[in-house]
Amino acid sequence: MAKQYSPDWHWYIAEVKNNTERSTFKRLSDRIAGIEHPSYEVWLPLKEKTTIRANGRKVTTQVPCFKGFLFIHCTDEKRLEIIRLEPNIKSYFIAPSTPQHGTKRIPYTMPDKAMEEYMQFVEGADDEYVVENPYQILK
């Protein structure tokens, strides 16, 4: 669950290269492991998915709820540093209604309260829950 941070911290939705959600999450998490006051926090919601193989055996794995996305809680300066250091992050999610400064679009930030509610929902949700597109939680 999100801790109390300064008002400069925001939740960003990072778009990552195909099938790199877990490895990107692990690399970002490993960078801050053991640090008492990390400069960011990262969250990758997972759900269980059961498939039946050709031999009839059931296999249960954990897959990301958002295909191609993970959440990063940090300052705007740290957001820019993370995208430079992490090659699998393609961009940050920009909602259609996000303000624009000149020709530069500002990444969408999820309010802390909305993010807390979403995290609680995902933690208690049925494992069949999956969102293909972040626009679905912004509505």
- What characteristic shape results from the CA principal axes? globular
* Poorly predicted tracts of residues: none
Sketch the topology as an H/E string, one letter per element: EHEEEEHEEEEHH
Tally the helices: what do you get? 4
CATH architecture: 2-Layer Sandwich
User: How many discrete structural domains?
Assistant: 1
User: What's the total number of strands?
Assistant: 9
Main sheet properties: 5 strands, antiparallel
CATH superfamily: NusG, N-terminal domain
Rg of Cα set: 16 Å
- Average of per-residue pLDDT values: 84
User: What structural class is derived from the secondary structure elements?
Assistant: alpha+beta
CATH class category: Alpha Beta
Topology (SSEs and partners):
Elements: E1 10-16, H1 21-32, E2 40-43, E3 46-52, E4 58-64, E5 69-74, H2 76-85, E6 89-92, E7 100-101, E8 104-105, E9 109-110, H3 112-124, H4 135-138
Question: In a nutshell, what does this entry contain?
Answer:
By secondary structure, the protein is an alpha+beta fold. About 30% of the residues lie in helices and about 30% in strands.
What does this structure look like?
The chain is of the alpha+beta class and 139 residues long. The protein has a single domain (10-138), classed as Alpha-Beta Plaits. 28% of the residues lie in helices and 29% in strands. It has 4 helices and 9 strands. The protein has helices at residues 21-32, 76-85, 112-124, 135-138; strands at residues 10-16, 40-43, 46-52, 58-64, 69-74, 89-92, 100-101, 104-105, 109-110. Strands 1, 2, 5, 6 and 9 form a 5-stranded antiparallel β-sheet that branches. It has a two-stranded antiparallel sheet with strand order 3-4. The chain has a two-stranded antiparallel ribbon with strand order 7-8. A hairpin with a 5-residue loop joins strand 3 and strand 4. It is globular. The two termini are 22 Å apart. The model has no long low-confidence stretch (mean pLDDT 84).
